[in-house]
Design goal:
Elements: E1 2-6, H1 12-25, E2 44-48, E3 51-62, E4 69-78, H2 87-101, E5 106-111, H3 114-119, E6 123-128, E7 131-137
Parallel strand pairs: 4-5
Antiparallel strand pairs: 1-2, 2-3, 3-4, 5-7, 6-7
Amino acid sequence: MIDIVTADLKTKAYKDFKDLLIEEWGQVDQLPEFGHECAIPLPLLAFQEETLTGGLSFIEFESPEASQLALWINAVYISSVFRGKGIASQLIEQAVQVAKIHGESTLYVYTDKKSLYLKLGWKLLSEKDNDCVLKMDLS
């Protein structure tokens, strides 16, 4: 069973998640730090028992549909041994719920995993090469 929790920025698990993201992509923008106020939701971490299996972080960036800032999924990472078990889907579905609670009307993502998001009910906005922008209406 997978448990998804809001990250506690003071824990080793959150530091481990940040390290996994940096190891995978080099740098990830707007990861919150302990002691700093953050207007976006905190990252979500997925655990199987006590083992960190992955996580999801948010970012605030310009909306592709209006000239205003919007909430985006910044990164979804699942440790290689846990991939293919539906954890990313669970994290994305939880992110949608968090965004609703946060008062957002739309959640966006820029990704190369189009089929995953389409399967979860997201709408394709644009596509170029392997990358695309999708949205989930939250109202």
